[in-house]
Amino acid sequence: MRTFLTRRIVFSIVALVGATFIVFGLSRALGDPRHLYLAQGRFSQEQWDALGKAMHLDKPLAFQYAIWLGRAMQGDWGTSVYNGRKVTELIRQRIFNTLQLGLAAFVFAGVLGVPLGILSAVKRGSMWDLFARGFALLGQAAPPFWLGIILILIFAANLEWLPSATKGEGFAIRNFVLPTITISWLFVSANIRLVRTSVLEILDSEFIKLARAKGVSQNSIIWKHAFRNALIAPLTFAGINIAALITGSVLTETVFAWPGLGRLAINAVYNNDFPVLTGCVFIFTLIYVAVNFIIDILYAIIDPRIRLS
Q1: In terms of Cα–Cα distance, which of 255, 264, 291 is closest to 143?
Q2: pLDDT number for residue 278
Q3: Fewer beta carbons below 10 Å: N end or C end of the chain?
Q4: Which residues of the chain have pLDDT under 70?
Q5: In sequence order, which residues have a C-beta less than 8 Å from that of residue 157 and are 6 or more positions away?
Q6: Are 193 and 136 in contact (CB under 8 A)?
């Protein structure tokens, strides 16, 4: 197990450093980064040289990357070009809102998608199966941004049951309803199809037939034997799920004016604010790497053969 953990930690560090290398390369591929900080109008040569020295642009590129990486690992991504505030401060103000929305969507996708997938597999060919498959098909065909606008038109504009935008003050469940459904709709549908396929494959296996022949109860067969052995594929998707729900909330946060990292990244693109965008990309990459590492550990716990391979 120690070798398994060491290997996964090394892979995670390599992935994270590789992502930072790409981000740093993009910052230099656009030309001299001083153009982002200095006004496009008139500025003196002294200002130009002083900023270059402060950003270590007079050093070799490898040295610049080492300094930038060291600061990034400490959470120092510089200051915003747009408003001059610390990038760390901007991210700290927004990240909790994004985590709240992502985790709420993840729970919703699991609570609704997994039971429907199991029910669809157990009741194969029934009306429940047709309903679950139809729901999954509709969910994967509807784009999230379109769904968000439709939900706003129906439940906010016409019925006035729920707020149309923004998180509001404090924690109010009604503010989470529409954005949570919007961002998790696709993942609910994918959970249904994936869990259904995995459970059906296990239910048709020989050891399940043997368990039925020995008189094992249906509930024990489904939850103790079938579901646990079908967990690998849904667990893989769950890892991608939670990372994608947290980092892929850009469109949803834009539609609902949600004050999170996704909206911050979009505004950084509009304002050509590369330091802020760099900080957001770094956080998103860190979330993906951390979640994948946790999923690898869960693999080894569920199936000991994985940590020995």
Answers
A1: 255
A2: 82
A3: C
A4: 1, 30-31, 35-43, 168-170, 247-248, 299-300, 302-309
A5: 164
A6: yes
CA dist 284 and 303 (Å) reads 29
Identify the pLDDT of residue 201: 82
Do the beta carbons of residue 263 and residue 97 sit within 8 Å?
no
The token duo for 281 is 């990309």
150-180 in b/e burial notation, b at 16+ Cβ within 10 A? Answer: ebbeebbeeeeebbbeebeeeeeeebbbbbb
Per-residue pLDDT of 148-195, as tens digits, reads 888 888 888 888 888 877 776 667 788 888 888 888 888 888 888 888
What six digits make up the tokens of 32?
């001299």
Question: Residue 169: what pLDDT?
Answer: 67
Residue 277: per-residue pLDDT: 82
